[in-house]
Amino acid sequence: MADMTGPRGGPVLVVGSVALDAVRTPFGEAKDALGGAASYASVSASFFSPVRMVAVVGADFPEQHVAEFAQRGIDVRGLQRAPGNTFRWAGYYEFDLNQAHTLATELNVFETFRPELPEDYRHSPYVFLANIDPELQLSVLNQIRRPKLVACDTMNYWIESKREKVLEVLARVDLALMNEAEARQLCGEANLVAAARQILNYGPGVVVIKKGEHGAMMLSRDSFFSAPGYPLEEVRDPTGAGDTFAGGLIGYLARCDERDDHGTIRRAIISGAVMASFTVEDFSLNRLLRLETEEIAERYHEIGVMTRFGGF
Ligand code: AMP
Predict the structure, then answer these.
(1) Could you report the per-residue pLDDT of 215-272, keeping only the tens digit for each?
(2) Nearest residue by C-alpha to atom 19 in ligand 1
(3) In this structure, which residue's CA is closest to atom 15 in ligand 1?
(4) pTM, entire model
(5) By the 8 A CB rule, do 245 and 210 touch?
(6) Which of 19, 130, 158, 166 has the fewest CB atoms lying closer than 10 Å?
(7) Best mutation site among 89, 137, 244 for ligand 1, i.e. most ligand atoms within 8 A of its Cβ?
(8) Rounded to whole angstroms, how far apart are CA atoms 214 and 290?
(9) How far apart are the first and last CA of the chain?
(10) What is the rounded distance in angstroms from the CA atom of residue 57 to the CA atom of residue 100?
(11) Whose CA is nearest to atom 5 of ligand 1?
């Protein structure tokens, strides 16, 4: 982590939602705020490796946000602007910040979006299919040539409305991310380890279950890893934590250009947990956009110290 002085390796192609969110938590609220799975994941990954973004926004999307992505070095040639409104999500949290309550999901320009990847995007070695319509995830996957690693995420909205397509995506990825409620819902299984094992049977070689403030769990056929959440005392808005986690994880793997080594996967999961711990300190992408590399290295080191134990 000490050599983390700018993006390297990759690039990572990210497809997913770019949104304007309305969010209320017990600690405040934000309206028309930059959000979306691809936004959080791309900005998070950009601290580790170059990023290419594939998404669509509407005529109402502030140009300033596109500039913010570009300032982080994100390649935004795949971010289309279409007539109509940007994807909008409205939700709230009560004191259990692990549980998002959706008030409204307006797909808007995503309803008719058919991504056409620029030629160089098709050769991206690392691909993250962030949360969005699984048919769009598949359409991107069909245009990619021989990636080294494909990871995906999804959520209850798509598991309920397009379960078969979600399973089709899972059959074609190397690494699946999901939060605990989604894993239980997808598998109809209360026990998380059993659910993760079932997801392995759907196709991916590695499954990472996100558990909000309680960290994350990784299962593959021959290994298990449990990562803590960074012990924050002040959380203002958990929105985007899962996407930020995923962006940090895949960005780290791309930076190391490694997909199989268990140690690297574990460090990637810790990198994801560190990135997510910053996102939740403020609304929208505010904290991520003012984050310094040194802060990432510090928390990464702290988690190492915190979880060290010997004598076995
Ligand atoms: P997370 O808190 O990591 O699960 O992600 C929250 C982000 O996901 C918000 O910024 C939303 O804009 C976005 N989002 C919410 N619902 C959906 C959906 N059905 N498809 C894609 N993105 C969504």
Answers:
(1) 999 999 999 999 999 999 999 999 999 999 999 999 999 999 988 899 999 999 999 9
(2) 157
(3) 89
(4) 0.96
(5) yes
(6) 158
(7) 89
(8) 25
(9) 26
(10) 23
(11) 240
